[in-house]
Structure formats: structure tokens, C-alpha cells
TrEMBL record:
<keyword id="KW-0594">Phospholipid biosynthesis</keyword>
<dbReference type="GO" id="GO:0016301">
    <property type="term" value="F:kinase activity"/>
</dbReference>
<dbReference type="InterPro" id="IPR001206">
    <property type="entry name" value="Diacylglycerol_kinase_cat_dom"/>
</dbReference>
<dbReference type="GO" id="GO:0008654">
    <property type="term" value="P:phospholipid biosynthetic process"/>
</dbReference>
<dbReference type="InterPro" id="IPR017438">
    <property type="entry name" value="ATP-NAD_kinase_N"/>
</dbReference>
<keyword id="KW-0443">Lipid metabolism</keyword>
<dbReference type="InterPro" id="IPR050187">
    <property type="entry name" value="Lipid_Phosphate_FormReg"/>
</dbReference>
<protein>
    <submittedName>
        <fullName>Diacylglycerol kinase family lipid kinase</fullName>
    </submittedName>
</protein>
<comment type="similarity">
    <text>Belongs to the diacylglycerol/lipid kinase family.</text>
</comment>
<keyword id="KW-0547">Nucleotide-binding</keyword>
<keyword id="KW-0808">Transferase</keyword>
<keyword id="KW-0418">Kinase</keyword>
<keyword id="KW-0444">Lipid biosynthesis</keyword>
<keyword id="KW-1208">Phospholipid metabolism</keyword>
<dbReference type="GO" id="GO:0005524">
    <property type="term" value="F:ATP binding"/>
</dbReference>
<dbReference type="Pfam" id="PF00781">
    <property type="entry name" value="DAGK_cat"/>
</dbReference>
<dbReference type="InterPro" id="IPR016064">
    <property type="entry name" value="NAD/diacylglycerol_kinase_sf"/>
</dbReference>
Amino acid sequence: MKLYFIVNPSAKNGKCKKIWNKIERMLQQQHICYRVVFTQKQGDGAKLAQQIAEQTNEPIAFIAVGGDGTIHEVMNGVAMYSHVTTGYMPAGTGNDFARGIQIPIKWSEALSYMLSSVKDGHVDVYDIGTFKGAKQGVFVNNVGCGFDAHISRKVNASKWKHILNRLYLGKFVYMFYLLKGLFTYEPTAVRVTVDQKQYTFSNAWLVTVANHPYYGGGMKIAPFAQSNDQQFDVIVVNDVSRLKLLALFVTVFWGGHIKMKEVHTFRGKYIHICSNTSLPLHADGEQIGEGEITISVNKQVRVFR
Ligand SMILES: Nc1ncnc2c1ncn2[C@@H]1O[C@H](COP(=O)(O)OP(=O)(O)OP(=O)(O)O)[C@@H](O)[C@H]1O
């Protein structure tokens, strides 16, 4: 099986390039035969992976090296090809996909794990979802509407982000917009349809559709979600005071928020979310525009585990 690494050198504020150099040394020491391609800008992960997959019908292994945005892109490039199996080396900021497929978060441990999975052909099936809205594609972790998408949009548009990222202080930009959003974001009425049942929320802060428990770098937003049950968990935070929302952002680290009366959970295969206002949206932390969105369980893909 041909082994390709698709590396996003900019992930983890540029540290991924250094991690890759170490990975490469280990691959060479172990005489592993591989090819590597580097992404140069947003969108390259999908394009490069698809171009390589289209060149052959022979089995190929792609290992995405980077963060959740990188595996999101690679999966968008190759999810439709049955001769492709995908793996992941966590070298980004959040790395929730690694938690989702239960592989080590530390890159050196993840490398040994991935290499033995590729060698032994240890493959599992994994649900992925399709989203259709202002943009369309597939996601591996979650799709979010509302407050969280608003914060990540603000962070990405911030001129401070690149400066502070270079100083390894990127988290402060996120904290700043999170706190600002807690006091300024206006919750909105949303209608959520889960497998033909309709629910209305008058003051929704966020709606998250999750394929596995983890979100935002280890928060357990959907503690009971399973990535191979052909269903998604839907979490709605509605009618919560700003102070309690702050508490929610603490309890979510161990999944305790689920007990709050303001947190509503559902499970289903087909989810439609709409609002009278333009809800900001993200898929796996990548901006996918705003407005209404339809999400469905797409199919199962093969991943190295
Ligand atoms: N060479 C590049 N230069 C700048 N951006 C890139 C490059 N290659 C890919 N990208 C974009 O970088 C973004 C962030 O990548 P990724 O999500 O993998 O890292 P991260 O944000 O550090 O990690 P995480 O999403 O796990 O928090 C993605 O939107 C991706 O499209």
C-alpha cells in the first residue's frame, strides 16, 4: 500500500513544520517508504489528496499531519474513494479528531500507532457527515451554528491573531473574543429538525451536531456521541444567562453541562437547522458561511486506528 503524508506546515501556529521534521527523521531511521506533500494555503489539503487518489485504483494510505482543519480538508478530498484509507497525526492546536478516533495526542506515540496500524492493516469504519448550506462538504468532528462559529469567525478575522500566534499567545485572542462574545452576542430563535421531529428554541446560543464527544480542543460537548453508530448527537444551548454560560464553558470539559436544564440533547441521522437571522456556521472549526444548514450521516469511511 502506498503511503502518503499530507502536511500542513502552518498548523499549531507553524510548529507542525518542526514536528514534521522530527517525524521525517523517524521515518527515515525506520526505512519506511513514503511520499510527502505540503499544503500551501487553505483548501490545498482536499485538492492534493484528491489529485493523488485519482491517479490510481491501487490502495492508498493518506496520513494527514496537522490539526482538525487539515483532516477535514483531506477527508473532503478523498471520502468518496473506496481505495483510500485515512489516518491522522495530531500536530495542530485542537486535535479533536485524534480524541475522536482514540489515538494518542502526542505526535511521537501517534506515529508509532499509525505506522503499526498501516503495517497490520488495522482499519476501522468511521461515520462522516455531509453538510449542505451556504457551502457543502463533509465533516469528521462536528458542525456548529451560532455562538462558537461567531467566536471562531472573529478570531480568524482578527489582525492580532497572526501577531500573537507568532509569539505563541494565540490563545489570548480566543479568550478575548470568547469573553467579549459572552457579553455582546445576541442569542436567537432557531428551529431544529431531527429525523422529521421539529423543535423550536426562542433564545439559542449554539447548536452543535457532533460525531464524537470532543470539541474545541478536548471539551466534551457531546459526551455520549459515538463515531460508528450512523447517528449524530445534537446539543442545543438555549435560554441560558450569560453568567451560567460561563459556568457551562467550565463544566463542558468533563461533560457536566449535559445536566443543565438549558442544555437539550437529541440524536438522529438527518438534521436541519434554520433561523430568521443569519446564523454563523463552522464545520470542524472551518468557516462554512452562514444561514440554514442540512446535515446527514453520509457514509462510513475507513480510518487507521
Ligand atoms: N501552508 C498553509 N498556510 C496557511 N494556512 C494553511 C496552510 N495549509 C493549510 N492551511 C489552513 O490552515 C488552517 C488551520 O489548520 P489546522 O486546523 O490543521 O491547524 P490548527 O488550527 O492549528 O489546529 P486545530 O484545528 O486542531 O485547532 C486550515 O484552515 C487550513 O486550510
